[in-house]
Amino acid sequence: MAITFDDASPRDVAAHDEPSRADASSARRTWGIALGVLGLAGIAVGSVTGAIAVSDKSSLGQESHDAGVGSTRFYADRSTAETFANVSTAGLIVGGAALVAASPST
Fold it and tell me: Which residue from 30, 73, 79, 102 could staple onto 35, CB 3.0 to 4.6 Å apart?
């Protein structure tokens, strides 16, 4: 049984095993851009669904005084408005968190 050694010094081996700073910076930049896009999308979804929820709430106020609107329709519309409000809240929270995570640290 023979043992052979490579001519590379320990310093050379360690340099090849670690990723370079450029690779790490590139990966951070890619993740930052991805999180930024996710954050902006979350804010956009939250804003649009929030506007729809506000509009639905206004319609519910009018429906509550209209005797021709049945309770089934009223409660279905209320459920829809609540769903849009919940999606809006979640979108704004996720979007804001993603934007904070994407911001460069100093």
Answer: 102
The phi-psi region of residue 76 (left if phi > 0; otherwise alpha if psi is between -120 and 50; otherwise beta) is alpha
Burial of 3 (0-12, 13-18, 19+ CB in 10 A): exposed
Please tell me the predicted confidence (pLDDT) of residue 65: 78
pLDDT in tens, 49-103: 999 999 998 888 888 777 787 888 888 888 999 999 999 999 999 999 999 999 8
Give dist(CA 31, CA 67) in Å, integer. Answer: 54
pTM reported for the whole predicted model: 0.69
* Distance linking the first and last C-alpha atoms of the chain: 54
What span, in angstroms and rounded, lies between the C-alpha atoms of 47 and 38?
14
- The token pair at 8 is 């590379």
CB atoms within 10 A of CB 56: 20
- CA 25 – CA 95 distance, rounded (Å): 23
For residues 49 and 91, the answer to whether their CB atoms sit within 8 Å is yes
